[in-house]
Amino acid sequence: MGKSTQDHPLNVTVWGENLHEFHDAEHMAALYPQGMHATIAEGIGSLLGDQVNVRTATLDQPEHGLTDEVLDSTGVLTWWGHMGHDRVDDAVVRKVHDRVLAGMGLLVLHSAHFSKIFKSLMGTTCSLEWRDSNDTELVWTVKPDHPIADGVPHPIRIEGQEMYGELFDIPEPDELVFISSFTGGEVFRSGCTWRRGKGKVFYFSPGDQGYPVYHHPDVQRVIANGVMWAAPSPRATFERPDVVSQPAPRFTAEDFARVAPGMQAGQEGHR
Amino acid sequence: MGKSTQDHPLNVTVWGENLHEFHDAEHMAALYPQGMHATIAEGIGSLLGDQVNVRTATLDQPEHGLTDEVLDSTGVLTWWGHMGHDRVDDAVVRKVHDRVLAGMGLLVLHSAHFSKIFKSLMGTTCSLEWRDSNDTELVWTVKPDHPIADGVPHPIRIEGQEMYGELFDIPEPDELVFISSFTGGEVFRSGCTWRRGKGKVFYFSPGDQGYPVYHHPDVQRVIANGVMWAAPSPRATFERPDVVSQPAPRFTAEDFARVAPGMQAGQEGHR
Amino acid sequence: MGKSTQDHPLNVTVWGENLHEFHDAEHMAALYPQGMHATIAEGIGSLLGDQVNVRTATLDQPEHGLTDEVLDSTGVLTWWGHMGHDRVDDAVVRKVHDRVLAGMGLLVLHSAHFSKIFKSLMGTTCSLEWRDSNDTELVWTVKPDHPIADGVPHPIRIEGQEMYGELFDIPEPDELVFISSFTGGEVFRSGCTWRRGKGKVFYFSPGDQGYPVYHHPDVQRVIANGVMWAAPSPRATFERPDVVSQPAPRFTAEDFARVAPGMQAGQEGHR
Amino acid sequence: MGKSTQDHPLNVTVWGENLHEFHDAEHMAALYPQGMHATIAEGIGSLLGDQVNVRTATLDQPEHGLTDEVLDSTGVLTWWGHMGHDRVDDAVVRKVHDRVLAGMGLLVLHSAHFSKIFKSLMGTTCSLEWRDSNDTELVWTVKPDHPIADGVPHPIRIEGQEMYGELFDIPEPDELVFISSFTGGEVFRSGCTWRRGKGKVFYFSPGDQGYPVYHHPDVQRVIANGVMWAAPSPRATFERPDVVSQPAPRFTAEDFARVAPGMQAGQEGHR
Fold this sequence. Notes:
4 copies of one chain form a homotetramer.
Chain A: E1 10-16, H1 20-23, H2 25-31, H3 36-48, E2 52-58, H4 68-72, E3 76-80, H5 90-101, E4 105-109, H6 116-122, E5 129-141, E6 156-165, E7 175-182, E8 187-196, E9 199-204, H7 217-230, E10 244-245, H8 253-258
């Protein structure tokens, strides 16, 4: 669909809380030296090359790094949060929500299932089961040849992951792309897409601050695929859907006159 | 599904703004002498008899009539609003939203597409086209034998209606039951269902304070069908989906031991 | 939805191949002395009591037991087949397919994913992964409070089952009710619903001739729930959707005249 | 998604019955001098340029022009038929069906709703209402910014069309892109997509041998968009989904051992 070319790269903003990086500094420094958001951004950049311009934004920045200028020039936003959902300013959430409805793509990662932005787009609790037990996760593709699943094995195998299990209280996805399993027997709808307004939303669960999941090549592949999948239409105008008041009728007197003269209202057709 | 019986009628609460009844008193007195909510409630009661207990609630009441006691004993809530969406208290909206996720059914009627409760459940703008021109609306069933469409003609014909047209900015319905047309050529997805958590939501567009639509027998029939369709499960516990932390694994050592001894991990099966 | 009452019980026909009962007579005699179809029928009858009349039909009977008389008086048909899919007469398949489109409900069980009737309703290969290794299956509910999941634990636990795994090549279900897991890490969309014409189709995977799964109380519960869920509308006419040729227009000259005189086609409304 | 580039154009085969061109020769010669299929092919070629190689195939050719060589080198097939559905050889239909499940895209146009290939992919009657009365059709986009709707007005206006109306007996589309209206008040789900196996199917109703619809620039635009939307994944292997027998388990003893030692099966977690 030619969403981006060398001449018009897709602008990607990778948002991260950047809190665990300080609260669990030692552990995180080993896994994610520049922060999880930096690792995610590098993955996207290295896989997509000059199809994208990637930048990061974090909670601690003014407006959490999501100023009008940044949002208005972002084609796809990725969101990772965990311990700081409450600290995200409601006004910024509202801006991001509006920008999604206007056409910006959104990737929601792991514990961001509980982010304000995801819950406001979904309308459900987004709750789930979880267990922190260094589990193995298998990610199975249930929609073959879906662009988000391009280039990854069936299943993807991730050694070292937090278990997420059903019931995952989300609206029925428009598309279910992945289902994951864990050694305890839990299952989880780990790759789901929805449309909201003109924007495309992709939730992808693998990824936890306690494990090196965002270095995993298949996870990086899925995120890169997801970014391209969620990219706005090349001709996107970024106008949110809005009320249209009192438009004139589109059918005209000439339209009605053209109907074959033999057919009069009330005259029953034959079955 | 036995949602209600003579012994356990379904409790239905019909919520109305009751503002036009005062602002356009003369016009409304002719159409809806006791208020639109009363007409809607009567329609439900007369069609469903002792399968239901019906009461009304209005904006001007304490907590808009939606106290904990009322909500906790409501199986299905219907909502009509238009000029007073802003006046609905956010705390009440949150209670209603939570109760839907816990299993209460919700019917959203006509201009309530812009109600706070509908927009928070949907996550979209819910905007549309409209024209106030005493139009004729035809309501076509696109899901044959759906319980909501039981007992109404194909199409339902409503003389005297406000035009609602696409684009209707909603998430893709779980089920599209009706599509409407108007003389100007406009179309509208006029009967849509979604699940949110354990609750069922039905949006039905025909109905405007300026026309006697809620007296129309087919419109009353659809609303009654919708109420029964949206009723909670007979065994509903009305607990919202919630986080489950650190559950024990469900697979046991015995489970793994039972797998046929000849099959070892790594041994490739034949295609 | 009051689909059946003491006065009008739902007619259920349980179809079985009845081949393994002879080919694996010794093993089957222990598990299913009267045949798998008899066990399934007994489960339905004992859970639903006088809401249903249950009968069985088998491959070896004239027209496989699915004469016009039987089909025309069947509200819900259940189908289990495995080694004899090829032996089902195409003319009978066509009759069953037409009856589903006309409103008869259909439950498709386990290896019947490869039945002619299921493949013709789905349009896909319906292929999957499988392993016969006396596995443990966990069946998780992903649509809370869905009538098909009524009264069963989360998850259902079945000790002794054949593994079915993704990719399950089916159209995206209208509703995904259950996802199963197995000790090898495999997952499977084990409870799926679709509408085809006026009929409702429910595929449920647990159940294999090699294991006593159809005696499992939770499996019996799901099958009984599925039968009631799939029951035709009380007012079903059992006419298949058909072409309507040359109907008269529904909009009349009076409709067009009623549109507010101030609004002329071509006159642009304001946004 | 970069489905095609100058180096690897998408191969498109435009299939037409080529019967009306002879049966209604005079009328068709005015509208479609080289046949409808030629007009459709020219539209695709002129809008997509070197992104595509376009060829045609017709009923009268050996294997209806759909030899193994042609099908194996076709990325997207378009299908228009009307009076000759019965004449299409079942063996060819089966090959086309298999190729769709393997990843070939398929556009189904107008009266091809009754083609063998569409009915076998859908599993429903695909029946509808129709009236041949030189009507005006308005095609409304209900999924904003969908690639298939790129570059066309809201609504598309077609003067001179056959009316198609609901009930259109199809499975619920994966995506509903367009809804059409006609002066008689009829509505129709005129742009629908489904996935079948690895293939993408797009049904688009405007277009009739009696009207110059396939010369309409917006109709040509939608068809071109649909072709690009339906294109197979760049890495498509064109292997149909198939059974996988007795794969080894993917979870290993090491996986189970890694689970945190404090967590034993049966030990209940806290909520």
